[in-house]
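ugh ok fine here u go
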Amino acid sequence: MSFSSLSTMADSIGKSRIIGITPGDAAGVGPEVIRGALESGRLDEGFTYRLLGNTDQVRPGKPTPETARNALAALEEAASLALAGEIAAVVTGPIHKARMQAAGFPFPGHTEFFADRWGAENFAMLLTGGSLTVALVTAHVPLREVPTLLSQEEIGRVGNLLANFLRMRMNRTPRIAVAGLNPHAGEDGTLGSEEERIIAPAVRQLAAEVGAEWTGPVSPDTVFHRAASREFDAVLCMYHDQGLIPLKLLAFDQGVNVTLGLPFVRTSPDHGTAFDIAGTGRARPESMIAAINLAAELVRKRP
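structure:
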């Protein structure tokens, strides 16, 4: 893609005030939490909200191969519209990853899908809600692979994306804690060497090169309490569940997933399809409301 094409696309995205919303697997709670959000009267009135995808003839709680294929088609439509500059942001409803992969979706999740459609190599997964914001150095990979995937370069790359996000949102120098990988952040090497070999050098490099206040590696069993107490603005986490468990504990109904590194905004509620309660009226729209409003906020604040 040429530089002129990228400039035209960025200009179009900057002018759009339309947010596209995909239902996810429509047999799950996606359609009802979207409806609840749109009817809540709590969304940013400066935007138009465009529903994408097909939710016809779907039985709540009864997923089928067709509902998975429709979810994939909605994502493809959203990616095309975003890349064409017709929408400024995408908010995605929850998908069932195994069913999506059976329908031809070759990605671990939404994050990797949108990065692939853009051709983005510098991207990361961030979640925010309540008093906690976390970014993940590794995301949708088995836990046994995490130590082999950690590197000073990857920690620095994701840390830089996290710092940029926080500066844009807060308009001040952010305070970021970097979590250790092992219990007690390795206990001076007696419980693991990744902190001394990889994480601490990465923190020193971030402190020297990236505009933020960096602390770490911090013991994972205390860092989230400190962040939730407002000592830090965010935590840079080494793996998926290290960040998502405390985030969902503290802000299950307000958590939002953000894909960093895309030319357009992409957010989603931080919950799954919940097929077991779909159609029962028990699904709450708060996380979807938070995802839509954060998308609107980020569109307004993007340079």
